[in-house]
Structure formats: structure tokens, C-alpha cells
Amino acid sequence: MKKLVIQGGNPLSGTIHISGAKNSAVALVPASLLSDEEVVIDQIPNITDIDALDEILIYLGATIKREGSTMTIHSEKIQNKEIPEEISKKLRASYYFMGALLGKYKKVEMYFPGGCAIGKRPIDQHLKAFEALGATIQIEGNKYKIEADKLIGNDIYLDCASVGATMNAMLASVKAVGKTVIHNAAKEPEIVNVATLLNNMGADIEGAGTSEIIITGVEKLGKAYIEVIPDRIEAGTYIILGALLGNPLTIENIIPNHIEALLSKLKEIGVPYDLSANRITVWAKSDLTPTAITTAVYPGFPTDLQQTITTLLTLVPGTSKVTETIYENRFQNISYLNEMGAKIKVDGDTLTIEGVDKLHGNVVQATDLRAGACLFLAGLKADGTTTIEHVEYVLRGYENIIEKLTQVGAKIELKEI
Ligand code: EPU
């Protein structure tokens, strides 16, 4: 087990550079196998979720070269064999191999994906999309066998605008015969990034980033290059850190459009910031105004920043409310925040937060990736020492976190237990 030990209370100044987006990269890597030629993905973050995907690609017979943040993938020699549970359960995004292998070979056998235990997280909408294209699905325990004689373009109606199901529907339909329309598609920027890679390979996808995506099947996909977009959740996390401790703190390599929901909330509560084309400078301020936040699909307030903004709201005088609408179990951070001095009540899907003056250091546990992020922000702000156990969760999604934070003045150490 790994733990983070943080000496809190130090103002932070300097610049943090944002890495490539985890939730784009984890789809771009499996998407690459749809090509019969070389695919180069730049700005790949060095996080453990990417290592887990590489392991699957290598197991299938792909060759991967990583040089700095550039990954080159050759998938010509892939064998479409069953992906074992030990590797598929390492992360959520292993489910993108369902769409990619089905799209390329019309058959995939693999197990239910893993990922953070933040809710039920069914994959019924992914399966519905595959079925609409003509695939049959057999489920034995945790194992899924999905196959089709031929994939034929169709209308796919998603019951909820799921990121994963939208990505998988694109991956499975790019080589289908004829036209596919994904209705009620998710609009997250990561979907646009993946559609751009597929189009660079020779696919014909229109409308990514809107709720209707039209895909006209092509026979062959070839050589392509793509850059991973900057991680809007990593950016949001460090911007919130700036609001807690910025003296001031600058966050660079951001796309302001992608974080509008967060920026408008910060403006509403009175956080001072200075925004330019690809960077933002944030100052900590004590007399902020309480607010109400409800998570929503993009461009609404992202669930992936719900836990980190809660850390900020614990220190805002007055009563704030946070409602989580995407996941059933994304409040596991609250008992730990309360042990650090916060005053938060959980009532169903809503938090009521009474602002306190201070947080104090404690021994806490990361129960999932963003819960861990919430706690490292709390630990950096709190008086005294905070130890965060099970910090492997955080390392899944934040590249070079120790280096990035140390560089701006944080006292933070990663230790093996
Ligand atoms: N849902 C269904 N059926 C489905 C698919 C989803 O009911 O077939 C429900 C889920 O249970 C959930 C909601 O729809 O309540 C949203 O799920 P979605 O499919 O959009 O999420 P995801 O693809 O599983 C991705 C990110 C998450 C992020 C969500 C929402 C990846 C690997 N994960 O998950 O990221 O929270 O979109 O933006 O891209 C994180 O980075 O911490 C993280 C959890």
C-alpha cells in the first residue's frame, strides 16, 4: 500500500502544467487498435490506468513504444483472444476493448470492467448499442461474449447520455456497414477527442460534441496522429487548490471552455482569478460566499469535481449544498472530511455543508480517485500532518502529482507501507 504524507497549511505559488486527459487517453489507446497501421498518441499522461491498458494491448499482441508523453501503437498483429479478468478488472476503461474489438473483428470476449466503486455503474447502454448494430450478447457470470456476423449501421437511442456508451457505440460502428446515428449522445470534450482520432484514421464521424452523432461506416482505418486534450478534471482540481492556497497559483495548459461550469461557480462564490487563453491564475481568499451545486452531464458541473469542490466549500462561511446526480456512492470522502473538522451532513444525494474556520490534519483513506483528490486538497489546507492511505487510487488519475505539488511549495511525500 502507498500513502501520502502532507504537512499542511503552506501557501502555494508558481505554475502547475496540466497533463493529457485521463478520460480521453483511456479511450484513445483502445481505439487505436481499430487501425491496421501505426497510431501515434501525444500528450499521454503517465498514470497507472494507462499502464493497465498497455498491458491489455500487449497481451493481445500489439507493440507499444512510449517515449516521454508520446505513445506509438502498432496493432496489425493483434490476436483477438479472450481478455482475462485479472487485467480487465484493473480499470473501468477496459470496456473500450468491447467496442474496439467488436468493431474490428466482429467478436469480443472479456470480463466486466473494474474501476472506482462509486455507484452501480451498469453497462446496459453499451450493450444496447452493440445489439442495435446487430451483435448478440451472451453473459456468463462476469464474462461477456459479444459477436456479430456483420455489423450494420442503425439508430442507437441511449437512455442516458453515458460517456462510455457513446464512446463504445462510436468504436463499434466506425467500420459497420452503412449509417449509424447515436441519439442522446454524451457531449463531453473527451468524446470529440476520440472522434477526431477515428476521423484522422479515415473514419466518417460527424456531430461529436453534440447529442446526435452520425457515423458512416468505412472499410479500412489507417495511420493517424492525435494529441490528448488537457485534463479538465486535473485542471479543475488544481484550480480549486489555488482557491484554497493560491499565493497566487497558476495553472497552465487548460482549455477554458472545458471548465466553464467550474469557473462560473468560482466567480459566484467570489474566488479571484485571472483567465487567459490557456492559463489561469488563482488567489486564495477567506471570505467567500456559500453556494449550491448540482452535478450534471457536460456542460454541467462535472461529477468528477464534486468531491474536490466540497473541500473548498467546507471552509466557506455559511451553508452550501452539493447534490450528486450521476453516481449513487460518491460521498465516501465525507466521513474523513468530517474527521478533519468539516461540518457536513449527508442526506440521500445531497450534502449540507456548514462552513468552518479550519481543517486539521488526520489519518484518512482514499476510497476512490476523486475522494483521494478531495482529501489531498484538504490535507494541503489543514493545520498539521495528514496521512492519506490507499493513495494508489489517486495515482491512477493524477500524473506526477508529487513533483507538481512540490514545485509550487507543498510539503508532500509518497511512502510505501
Ligand atoms: N450508466 C448506466 N448505464 C450504462 C452506462 C452508464 O446506467 O450503460 C449510468 C452510470 O451508472 C452513471 C451514469 O450513467 O450513473 C454516467 O455514466 P457514464 O457512462 O457517463 O460514465 P463512465 O463512462 O462510466 C466516465 C468517466 C468517469 C466520469 C463519467 C461522467 C472514464 C473512464 N470514466 O465514466 O470518470 O465520472 O464518465 O463524466 O472515462 C473519474 O475520472 O473519476 C471518473 C469516474
N- to C-terminal distance: 5 Å
Spans of 5+ residues with little confidence (pLDDT < 50)?
none
| The CATH C-level class name of the largest domain | Alpha Beta
Shape: globular
How does the SSE layout of this entry go?
Blueprint: E1 2-7, E2 12-17, H1 22-31, E3 39-42, H2 48-60, E4 63-67, E5 70-74, H3 85-88, H4 96-105, E6 107-111, H5 124-132, E7 136-140, E8 143-147, E9 155-157, H6 163-173, E10 179-183, H7 189-201, E11 204-206, E12 212-216, E13 224-227, H8 232-245, E14 246-252, H9 260-269, E15 273-275, E16 279-282, E17 292-294, H10 306-313, E18 319-323, H11 334-339, E19 343-347, E20 350-354, E21 363-365, H12 369-381, E22 385-389, H13 392-395, H14 401-407, E23 411-416
Parallel strand pairs: 2-14, 3-13, 9-10, 17-18, 21-22
Antiparallel strand pairs: 1-22, 1-23, 3-5, 4-5, 6-8, 7-8, 10-12, 11-12, 14-16, 15-16, 18-20, 19-20
Helix pairs in contact: 1-2, 1-4, 1-7, 4-6, 5-6, 6-7, 8-12, 10-12
The protein binds uridine-diphosphate-2(N-acetylglucosaminyl) butyric acid (EPU).
Describe this structure in words.
The chain has two domains: 2-19 and 230-416, UDP-n-acetylglucosamine1-carboxyvinyl-transferase, Chain, CATH 3.65.10.10; 22-227, UDP-n-acetylglucosamine1-carboxyvinyl-transferase, Chain (Alpha-beta prism). Helices cover 32% and strands 26% of the residues. It has helices spanning 22-31, 48-60, 85-88, 96-105, 124-132, 163-173, 189-201, 232-245, 260-269, 306-313, 334-339, 369-381, 392-395, 401-407, and strands at 2-7, 12-17, 39-42, 63-67, 70-74, 107-111, 136-140, 143-147, 155-157, 179-183, 204-206, 212-216, 224-227, 246-252, 273-275, 279-282, 292-294, 319-323, 343-347, 350-354, 363-365, 385-389, 411-416. The strands form six sheets. Strands 21-22-1-23 form a four-stranded mixed beta sheet. It has a four-stranded mixed beta sheet with strand order 2-14-16-15. 52% of the residues are buried. The mean pLDDT is 96. It binds uridine-diphosphate-2(N-acetylglucosaminyl) butyric acid. The site of uridine-diphosphate-2(N-acetylglucosaminyl) butyric acid (EPU) has 27 residues, from α1, α5, α6 and α12.
